[in-house]
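Support case: user asked for a sample of complex input and structure output to validate their parser. Sending the pair below.
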Amino acid sequence: GGGREPQGLAEKSSVQTVGEEQTQNPYTELLVLKGHQDIVRFLVQIDDCRFASAGDDGIVCLWNAQTGEKLFELHGHTHKITAIAPFSSSDAFEEKRHLIITASADRTVIVWDCTSGRQVQKVSCFHSTVKCLTVLQRLDVWLSGGSDLCVWNRKLDLLCKTSHLTDAGISALVELPKNCVAAAVGKELIIFRLTDSNNESEGWNVLEVKRLVDHQDNILSLVSVNDLTFVTGSHVGELIVWDALDWTKQASECNFWDSSVHPDVQPEIKLSQSPNETSVQHLTSDEEYVFAAVGKGIYVYNLQMKCVIACQRTAHDSSVLHIEKLPNRQLISCSEDGSVRIWELREKQQLPAEPVPTGFFNMWGFGRANKQANQAAKKMQENTPIYFLELVGDLIGHSSAVQMFLYFGELGLATCSADHLIILWKDGERESSLRSLTLFQKLAQNGDLQLKL
Amino acid sequence: MEHRRYRATENQVLGLMGITAEEWKLPVILFGDAEMVTFKDDLYREPPLPEEYSVPLFPFAGHGANPWAKVAGSKFTRDFILISEFSEQVGPQPLLTIPDDAKVSGTFDLNYFSLRIMSVDYQASFVGHPPGSAYPKLNFVEDSKVVLGDSKEGAFAYVHHLTLYDLEARGFVRPFCMAYISADEHKIMQQFQELSAEFSKASECLKTGNRKAFANELEKKLKDLDYTRTVLHNETEAQKKANDKGYYTTQAIEKANELASVEKSIIEHQDLLRQIRSYPYRKLKESEFHPYEPERALDRADAGCDQDLAPSDPAEPGETHLYTHIPSYTPKLIKAKSAKCFDKKLKTLEELCDVYFFTQTLDQLHHIERTFRGDVCYLLTEQISRALLKQQSVTNFLFEDVSFLDEKPPEKQYRGCQGLGQDATDGKCLEESLTPKVVVSLGSYKSSVECVPIKMEQEMEDSEEPKMSESVTSEPQENLDYLDADIKGSISSGESIEVLGTEKSGSGLTKSESQASLPVMPSPQAGRSKVGSRRTVSEDSIEVLSTCPSESLIPEDFKASYPSAINEEPYADNDDERGLRFAPRLSPGIADEQDDVSKQESLVQVDAACCIGKESPIFLEPLPELGQKPCEEDGVVRIPPQPYRAAEQGLRGGFPAHDGVPGGLLPYELDSRYLSGSREVSKSSLDECSDSTSYISSAASTCSDRTPSPAHPACQAGERHRKRAGQNALRFIRQYPFAHPAIYSLLSGRTLVVLGEDEAMVKKLVTALSIFVPNCGVYAKPVKHWVTSPLHLVDFQKWKLIGLQRTVSPAGVNVLHALSRYSRYLSILDADSKTLRCPLYKGTVVARLADHRTQIKRGSTYYMHVQSILTQLCSKAFLFTFCHHLHLPISEREPEESVVNRRMNFLKLQLGLANEDVKIVQYLAELLKLHYIQEPGRGGSPLLRFDYVPSFLYKI
């Protein structure tokens, strides 16, 4: 954890703190789930109350999100797990089966049954580590991306595969309309299309349709916004919005890590930024916005306006690894610094004098910052309300980088970390009343509720 | 002034126990209080003795004396256990005392007392040739248990007679007795059952060892005899061959006779061996049998004991088995004339019982001595508290060390609540048996051949039966006269011995049809029935008030069927039901939880009843009116607390009837003014209490060298710890002005870290504060005295109080870094700079808990004070947790907010909690919930609850 603070004290102090009283933070109870012996990197939801965790120890654990009970510990991989995906069968004939697919550095992929905790099938014919898995529910196939792209059916028959693409392999996959997928391969974005094979009844062919080379650096994140749009982010802080149908660039934000207003000023500062500080680690979106975890900061990009409307340049002390949008205009981020923060996207009342991103330019000195900010404010005010990200709570528990988290709604929040732990954060009030309910149910069960005189 | 104090204390004690004067009649000992009273009166009426002979009954009876210091009247300084034997060579003789210290018995004449206690053995155990039987029969007699008083010596004793087998002894038996001797008659009387249970264990241990030793001895003897027979046979044959005269020489006839007698002896001994081996299987059938089970030393038994304990199938004939384990033995020739002379050395007790079992017995006796030493009030209070505490299975884990409570199956724990109906019937029987009845019918004495009861008394008793049972209850004085008139002289006796009661384990009796008239008393403790029978009353002051008949317990059909090895293991199961284990007991300090639960609390508990019905613990009866209190003229209550019987309480201590408001909340009970008002009351009475308690305890401490407090070996350390913790806590609250927020942190479940360089100082503080830490479960306290590595989140789940090392090393920096990182979960008490960083506290509970101006001086007193306040908190938490409508909507449409409102109103107005006190009760309630809903066997991962509240830095 910890992270580097290259900018010194000035920047460090710019990290917003929420204070000890967090009235809007519902998480007042936690459960520490122990089961892993190494970094836990992945959490994936299985159904309403179960999730799986996986990481560098090669173990997959299934958990009950309500009680924190460990349901299964799945052993099968000999190396660290590199990708995990849920795969629910929607067969009308049989009961709904909850499966998960895991890929590991041991070059195998295993399908697990979450109900029985058993290994359903194992594929070990890979030439390289599978780095990403995507399930195309609609086609009832799943894709594995490594040095090539393979298409599999439910029975784990290899339907088709591409030629060898690159040694580095596919880092991300996203499903696009019209049986297409976008694969991030280094700096390139390759669009593949799955077509019916002519000779076989249940066969697919995979064809490369387009290669997009607009990114200057490796593409780290890839997210589908809706049927029309998808977004990619790269290591040097480029964010490109693509048309999902014709794969054209709709918009791009190249230097928004610096300043959305004056992207070209102060090149020397741009140089001083280490790539880590600007890389787009993770993207998430709703219909309206794309939320980007860029370096230590969080940026909210309005798709319609094609600009960043709010940001926290230093949301954390260290790189933000994962962000998620909650239904209630809240945003959760986790970071290498071991903390999880809850943000709320708020609309600021029209206060023209105030700069858009508060404390945004602190490091450049007050005078200029204000000037720029005023300019920014003026520009913004013309057609849009001003937004800002308000820190409403933080969760301190992990002693090392928080890799990922899973939001379970009412049940709480599961976070996984390099400290080998998973923490289940819960709403203490809700848990307390649930326990009361259980208590009175148990009393009734025991027949203790009748008053005997 | 002093008197007032006494009264306050005793009122409190008695009131808290929910005992009224009516309940003081003991079901255990079957004679009325009348005898005792009469006995005292007699003493008072005695003509004045010369000064040197007079034994002051109550030497400190004057103004301001401690009414419980009765020990002073006796010639010995403290209670002790005496083992005596009725030696066939020298008569009654004391063998050993426990504690084995000459100072203990002082000027007390052990020889004299041995004579006394051995002279009242009613075991009636006879071995020999009973009429109609060809061979000597071993008589497996029950131990007899009598209570005996010697007013001259100022000694009262529980006397436990037992016989051990010895092949060399007359009739193969050696009568022994173990006696618990105390100057306090009440102790003996009231602890009779407990004493009986404990001594039975010791006795069973001795007898078990003895049976093994006896069997070994018999086997050796048989080999000797066999060898002798062979030798004799050979000699006879040789003589026959050598003798061709056609007639037998006297020598030959002598040899033949000798051979015949050896043959007979072999048969007899074989029979004896078969009998002794048949023992366990016969006993197995008896529900009342309590086999000795070495509990603590089971491992030692396996390793160190011997092969006899090796498991063996009862069905498998054990002859070979036994022989294989016996070291090779060279048979000796037995001379025709047995060497029975008086200068032969009888076996010592140790030899009789096998060293291992002898040591075990001594351990048990030491355990008994430690358990029952000290004042009877102390014992009783402790027992009552323990019994009550055991019932509070929902809350008792919070602040009590429940590991000292008996581990019982869960369904039994709730027995008092769930089986109310059943208890009622039990209680009826109980009430009947409360009235002392002297009922004996002939049938109670098994008419087997081996048994030779004292018939004379029986018959007499029988004829008197109806009259007696009446008169004992109604007109004790008359009754005694009547006894004197009719029964006197039936036993020749000494001057001042009284046998006050004996006990008979009565399963055998209740089984037989002829016992229909016997009162069956299902005592919850041991489930034993008492049969009282008046035996004799002597010329002078010997009174044998009851005894138990002995039985011969070998059914004929059983004797030969299992000739296998003596195996004591298979019937261990009986033990549990009978409650005769080494009952792990709570040590007194803890058990005083009830002390300050005053009337208000018991009333408050009634509300819980409304919500949860019979799940609630059995409630105490309200305090008896002052007028009913048996106070003597000077206002000193002289009656110690009475033993607590669960079944009794279950019946009587139900819910105090509140007419007109059945099942509803009584307005005044939950009135906050009432509560706060009574809190004031309880506060003031508390102060008095603590005064008087410390007074009493200091008074007691003046003679503590004589009578050390009773303690159980397991918790002696705990007791000491508690004292020290109390003392340290007192010091802490006096020294640190910010003690309140620190204690609040602990009570509200926020981990408190005591940070310091000096390990001793940190540990001391941790010890002091540990008494405020609620337990999360029945496991160990969540307290870690000393940690040197950086803390993690998991630690705060596990531990609520941590002593942490502060170092200047780089590692120390990490430690501090972790502290600041997790500061939201922590309160930090810096022992070096005397600062505290923790949330603000503005409540009132802690102020009462830790008043730095408190007058309490002693650590143990303060500990009890803390326990009492914490108990109040527990009861509030209990109420809060189990009131249905505080947590769930009354109707389906009721919005959540109104439930929340109701909840807060209850906490603030009804429970009278101010500010942060609410959080304490909420936290305790959360623990109660978790504890209750937790699946048994599943520990579950502990959860960490916390608040986002600002912390403040306190400095001295």
